[in-house]
Design brief:
about 180 residues; 6 helices; mainly alpha
Length: about 180
């Protein structure tokens, strides 16, 4: 295994762990272990790529696909057991619409399918990761609303970055870094 590909293998590992969650009973120790490994790998792949100076377009795309697959699997698994109010459903669709619009703009403007690795997007991912802890508790609904606020800010920021940027910078930290 070549060291320059380690971060890519970590992203592939996240894809495989995410898909394996579809075949494991929810809230078992096996599920929790694999879920945590997937979450840790999400942090680890980018860290390893930066520390080993092996960041690449392929790695960024693998990370994006791993994020999308993990998010889709988690939504599929947790939707039946999570409490979604009508407000949350509308809000989630609005966030989704902003995300899709941002991706479409990036594709037509930069000829690449990409989700930006902003600090807001990373923060959203972190808070999403912890949502299962609150399922069934009195913090479930407030936690979901809080994550929606953070996800809304991240989505709008990404949309603005894609509109205002002159070139694609997948690893841009924030809207404030666009013209630096």
């Amino acid at each position: 295994m070549k060291s320059k590909y380690i971060s890519n293998y970590i992203s592939i590992f996240r894809i495989l762990t995410s898909l394996s969650l579809l075949f494991i009973d929810l809230f078992t120790w096996e599920f929790i272990t694999i879920y945590i490994l997937g979450g840790v790998s999400d942090v680890l792949d980018g860290y390893v790529a930066r520390k080993t100076n092996t960041e690449s377009l392929l790695g960024a795309r693998l990370d994006t696909w791993a994020d999308i697959i993990m998010f889709a699997v988690i939504i599929y698994i947790f939707t039946p057991v999570i409490t979604l109010t009508n407000t949350l459903v509308v809000w989630l669709f609005a966030i989704f619409a902003i995300r899709v619009t941002s991706i479409i703009i990036a594709y037509f403007k930069f000829k690449v399918f990409a989700i930006l690795h902003t600090l807001c997007n990373k923060t959203t991912g972190l808070f999403l990761f912890f949502i299962p802890i609150f399922i069934g508790s009195s913090l479930e609904i407030p936690g979901l609303y809080f994550v929606c606020v953070v996800a809304s800010v991240a989505s709008i920021e990404e949309l603005l970055i894609n509109i205002l940027s002159r070139k694609m910078k997948v690893n841009v930290k924030s809207l404030f870094a666009v013209h630096k």
